[in-house]
Write a structure and sequence with these properties.
Elements: E1 3-11, H1 21-41, H2 46-60, E2 79-85, E3 91-97, H3 103-113, E4 118-120, H4 121-130, H5 144-149, E5 161-169, E6 175-184, E7 202-205, E8 209-215, H6 217-222, H7 225-236, H8 240-253, E9 258-264, E10 269-270, E11 277-283, E12 289-292
Parallel strand pairs: 3-4
Antiparallel strand pairs: 1-5, 1-11, 2-3, 2-6, 5-6, 7-8, 8-9, 9-10, 11-12
Helix pairs in contact: 1-2, 2-3, 7-8
Length: 294
């Protein structure tokens, strides 16, 4: 049976109560998860479906990735993304890209068209150009926070972050994970978080699980969060839910916060978070749909 989970980032989402943003996002998540599940049920691969999922999440502008990305302290958009498939452990990622419309498509190009795993900055964008990916002008980006609450009420620095991600298991039993972000809000120029780091923000291994993380990336790097979940399941025999919860506790123990979505080998789903909210939706292998934010 197929299974899918998506997220639009974890954080202080209670600040959006009364703005209409939470209701809009919930409708979008509800519709999107059903569409993606249909794709899996029609035989699409987990890799294609997580790519499609992240493109939709990047394009909608509600989350801090793709269209909704906010600028760094030097006024530039700097986005990171990664993708991994669980059959052969192939992976691709990009960091500090500023004008590609869908960084997740570029991460997939790195995986499929180069011998490398991670490309950064201008050379990564040259690869996008070579393969005809769409580029956008700076005015394409409408920071999600500003769109929802207006300039005056946006909060700053470490209070805010956001990311989008997807994990899926297809009919053939293959799993995949994909994550894309504008990083933490008001981050320093050149700062790279966990999202493009395979094993920290994204990880997938067939017959074990797939994970996509969101939160203060520095803490997810320091705990190798995404791969730690998979290794706990594999080596300790924990359930995917217990493993995800344990790794999130490790993140909290060193001062971090955030959340993750994870799919286990049988298509079971876990979506724990330690922040006031996490945009999330899933349909597990038994057809159970979950959509939530706070
Ligand atoms: N993990 C992302 C980063 O640190 C941000 C987030 O998920 O909110 O870049």
């Amino acid at each position: 049976m197929t299974s899918i989970a998506i997220h639009g980032g974890a954080g202080n989402l209670d600040k959006y109560i009364g703005t209409g943003r939470l209701e809009e996002a919930e409708l979008f998540l509800n519709h999107t998860i059903q569409e993606l599940h249909k794709q899996l049920e029609s035989g699409a691969s987990a890799l294609d479906v997580v790519t499609n999922a992240v493109v939709l999440l990047e394009d909608i502008g509600y989350f801090h990735a793709g269209k909704g990305t906010c600028v760094t302290t030097n006024g530039r958009v700097e986005m990171d993304a990664s993708i991994m498939e669980g059959a052969q452990a192939n992976a691709g990622s990009v960091a500090v890209v500023s004008s590609v419309r869908n960084p997740i498509r570029l991460a997939r190009l790195v995986m499929e068209q180069t011998p490398h795993v991670l490309l950064v900055g201008q050379p990564a964008e040259a690869l996008a150009e070579m393969h005809g990916l769409e580029f956008v002008q700076p005015d394409y980006f409408v920071p999600c926070d500003v769109a929802a609450v207006g300039n005056a009420q946006t909060t700053s620095a470490w209070n805010n972050h956001g990311t989008v991600g997807a994990v899926a298991r297809d009919k053939a039993g293959n799993v995949a994970a994909a994550t894309s972000t504008g990083g933490t809000l008001h981050k320093a120029a050149g700062r790279v978080g966990d999202t493009p780091i395979i094993g920290a923000g994204t990880f997938a291994r067939n017959n074990v699980g797939a994970v996509s993380c969101t939160g203060y990336g520095e803490y997810f790097i320091r705990t190798s969060a995404a791969s730690a979940v998979v290794h706990r399941v594999e080596l300790l025999g924990e359930s995917i839910g217990a493993a995800a919860g344990a790794v999130l506790s490790e993140v909290s123990a060193i001062g971090g916060s955030g959340g993750m979505i994870a799919i286990g080998s049988r298509g079971e789903v876990a979506m724990p978070y330690s922040t006031p909210g996490m945009y999330r939706a899933s349909i597990d292998a038994w057809g159970k749909k979950t959509v939530g934010i706070l």
